[in-house]
Structures are given as structure tokens and as C-alpha cells.
Amino acid sequence: MKSTIKNTALILFAAASFSSCLQEALPSSGAIAEQIQGDASSVQAQVNSIPAAMFRFGSSYASCGYPGIMLMRDAMTADFPVYDNTYDYYGYYVGATQYLGDYDVQSDQWTLYVKLIASCNNVISMCDPDNLTESLSRFLGNALTYRAFAYLDMTRMYEYRKTGVTSLDSRAQENEIYGLTVPIVTDKTTLTESRNNPRAEFWKMYRFILTDLNDAAEYLSGYKPSEIIYADATVAQGLLARLWLEIGTRFENSPSDLAEALSHENDPQVTYDKLGVTTAKEAFAKAAEHARLAQAGHSPLTLDEWMNPETGFNTAPKSSSAWLWGMSIGTDDDAVHSWKSWIPEISPEVSYGVVYPLNAYRMIDARLYSGIPDSDWRKQTWISPDDAGKESAYTKYRTNLSSEEWATIPAYTGFKFRPAQGDTDTYTVGTAVSIPLMRVEEMMLIEAEALGRSIGLGSGMSALNNFVKTYRDPDYTFNGATVSDLIDEIFRQKRIELWGEGIIMFEYKRLQKAITRKYSGTNFLESHQINSPDGVVARWLNFYITSSEYQYNNALRNAQNPDPSFVSEYEY
């Protein structure tokens, strides 16, 4: 068994994370490298630390681990208004003119990813790919999957994209940061290298993530995890689908970026897997292929699974297996908290937290809601403005509340995420939930878009109509005139289907969609009614790397995104 664990002092590593965390040692229990060798259970313990890193608490009020980042990303869009923001800790991100730069909230989210990558690198450093047992193969596959997930998130969050704000875009041009993502740190990065580790070019980062996921899919082949927190090959395929959709969109919008990537394809100094595509259509074809592979063994949620007051969106369903991947909070975990946790921040049914007690109700955008036909059963997720406040409408909805309690909740409030076991009063029970990271429905929508953009409009429409008509709205039919129409409709479907799951912000940024909160009939608070133009990225979607990182990494000091704080909406 000793040959299956790397026999190296690297386990006390210099490269477990970004430079600000390089002094941490593995393992946290205090064991040394010699004790770990030959002990696969020690590797298992480190594997368990990876999903645990998703719940790292930070110093800001808006920090409840990765679920908090999900809430923050949705709050940045046009889809997630709040009824009262007095105790809404995600108001920092709604496009207001403050706290978008060098502040605790940004430091918290950066540090969570850093710690997550560090945990992944710990496991990777302990596994020799040339001498893997079945257990070690899935350990390594999980570490590579989570690392790729972290870097794909960070790439989409931190790469600066044109905003239409002259002062910001000009500064980005002067500082030569267009096309840069984040520094790559692996299990082999040394402390010296990390102190001057530049932001990776987009093409290099794509190839790095691609390599991790290609390897992960191989190592996880045939593995069926017992818990939703562990990745299998379908999760790796799902992340590859997300990656290739991102790549295809970029290359279609920017032929110069495609040329740049191709110019480095045969660079002998770059050891990552080649992209292997020469056109945007080829990238979209790969997105469709991987999205289809990710769907294997999975089927969409049914109405009863979605609406179940006790298990809806808090338990990975056994019957349909719609969830590919998720997080899980146990009853004894630190993430069980009366307000600084997922359920207290999003569920309108619990008597603790900030939503029901303090009116921080999470709502759907009024204009988006009005476009959902009554025949689409997902519409029941949110309270209709025609029903709000009327006890007589109570029986239309499935809820853990009494009719009197339900009638106090405002229109458009979402009931998607339920407390565990439907327990609305005991926070130690109600907050111990699972949270989806990837569902098969997203893969079906990715496939529809990718087919439309690679094969043609008819193929994409057929896939879209099949999904919505079969699983969501029996009266649904979409007949678009162009591929652009198809893309817009899939974007709308994602806004409905994935509401509250922390994914849609990436779509706004990828597709350069306008964020519109100020319009006649809006249900956004007046202080949140800030719009961005179509065809560019809203300025607040370009995340800021805080000084907590660049004070340790000299290469970042002059390669920082412009700080969008205090930029007026009138500068557009």
C-alpha cells in the first residue's frame, strides 16, 4: 500500500494554496508525512476536508460559506430582489456604489476558494497517479473535480470584462488585465513561485481546468458515491459542459481570443491538455457532448419533489436522482446556525434567521414572474401578487406555515428551499439540509443551447421543447426565428429553473446581458434600482481581488481589476 501514497515531504508542502495560506501544513490533525504513508484512511480524512471547506465562515455578516456566495451571486442579478434589506447582508452586491472593492466581504469569498483549493492540493499531493487503488482513484478524482470547480468559478468571477464604464475599462486597458484570470496554484507550486505568481491568461486557465476534469472523469469512471457531496464522473462531465459553453461563447464573440488560444496550442512549455478545437462551433459541440454525458442516470425533478414541504430542495431525491452534486450540512456541523446559514438566509418558513422574522424575503423579479405561464407548474414556487395576503388562496400553495402565517408574506416571495423535515422552529433540525450544486436540468438546458449554436436552430429548439414540455409545462412550445432567440429563451428558462442556486450570475456575465431592476412595476427596492446596458458586463460582476491576497503575491500588485466602488450609474 505504501506505493499508492507519494513518498515525499511535499505533504508538508509549500504549495497547498495561494500565497496567503502557504504556511498551513497537512494534515491538520498534526500527523506527519511518514505517518500518512501506507494509511489510505488518512487520505480519506483529507478528502472529507474538501466538502467541509465549502462551509468556511468568514468575518463579514454576509459569510456563511459557499452558500453565502451563492446568495451573493444571485443578489447581483435582476432575479433576486429582497423585500426589506435592513437585515439583508447581501445588499453589498446589488450594484450599489460601495463595498465592491477592498473589503471584508470580498476577502471572505476569495479566502474560501483559496482554502478549498488548498484542501484539494493536499489530497492530490498524497496520491500517485501511477499507483492507484480503487479507493485512491476516487479520492484523486474528487480532489481534481473540486479544484476544477473552484478555478472555473474564480475564472468567471474575477476575469475583467468590458463594462461600458469608460473610467473602469480604460484603467483595465492601461493595466493590461484583459484576458487575465487568477493565479494557478497546484500541489507542485513552491513558496518562492507563489510570491510572484501572475494571473493566468484565459487560454492557459481553460487548459488547466480541462486537464483536471479530463483526468477526474477517468479516475471516477464507474464510481457511484454514497453521498451527494462526493463527485462521480457525471459531475466532471457537467463541469466540462459548463467550461466548453464558456469557451464557445468567448470564441464566437471574440475571434481574436480564438486566434490567441490557437497560437499557444502547441507551446511546448504548456503541459496542460490542448483545447483541440479550431472554431467556436467545435467548442459548442463539445459542450453538448459533455452535457449529454452528464445526464446519464439522472432525470428532472417532478412537481411533487420540487414542492414537497419537508424535502423540497433540501434533500437529494432518491427517486429521480435529479441532483448530480451538492453540499450537505449535518446536525452537528458548524454550519448549523440560527441565522448565519443557508436556510435562515433564504427560507420564508422558519421562525429564526433574517427572512420571516426580519422581512428579508427573497423574491423573484416581477417582470420575470409575469412571463411564466400559468400552465408551468414552477410558477407555484412564488406567491402570486393576486394571492398575496389572502388566506383564501392558501390552499393553492404547499407550505409548512399556517394560513394566517402564510397570508403575512408578500407577493413574489419564493418557497423553493424548505427547512429539513419541514421543521420551522428548531434551527438545529431545520438548517441541517443538503444544497444543490449541479442538477440535470441545467445540463439539459446547456445541451439545448450548445446544439443550437453548433448544429443549428432546429436541433436546439427540439431539445428545449422536449425538456420544458415534458417536465415543466405541457402547453409549452417555442418557435424562435434565430439562434439568438433560442439563446434568449434558454436564458429565461435558466432564470426560472435555477432561481436561488447561485448559477445565473455566470450566465449574465457570459452572455453580456443587461441587469434591469428599474422599470414600471418593479419589485426591487428603490435603492437597488440600478440598471446596466445590454452587450457589456454590469460593472459589479467583475470581482475584486483584495489586498489580503496581493500583499503576499507581488505579481498582483499592478494587475488588479479596477475597483467599481462609488462609480455612479450615470457614468454608463
Could you characterize the architecture of this molecule?
With 572 residues, this protein is mainly alpha-helical. It is 40% helix and 2% strand. The protein contains 21 helices and two strands. It has helices at 33-36, 40-52, 66-75, 104-126, 134-158, 166-174, 191-194, 202-219, 233-253, 255-263, 280-294, 303-307, 342-346, 366-370, 403-406, 427-430, 440-454, 457-471, 483-497, 504-511, 547-550; strands at 323-328, 434-439. The protein has a two-stranded antiparallel ribbon.
In angstroms, what is the radius of gyration?
A: 23 Å
* Count of individual beta strands: 2
Q: How many separate helices?
A: 21
Question: What spatial order of strands do you see in the largest sheet?
Answer: 1-2
The biggest beta sheet is recorded as: 2 strands, antiparallel
Q: How much of the sequence is in beta strands?
A: under 5%
In whole angstroms, how far apart are the ends? 62 Å
Topology:
Elements: H1 33-36, H2 40-52, H3 66-75, H4 104-126, H5 134-158, H6 166-174, H7 191-194, H8 202-219, H9 233-253, H10 255-263, H11 280-294, H12 303-307, E1 323-328, H13 342-346, H14 366-370, H15 403-406, H16 427-430, E2 434-439, H17 440-454, H18 457-471, H19 483-497, H20 504-511, H21 547-550
Antiparallel strand pairs: 1-2
What would a concise description of this structure say?
With 572 residues, the chain is mainly alpha-helical. The chain is 40% helix and 2% strand.
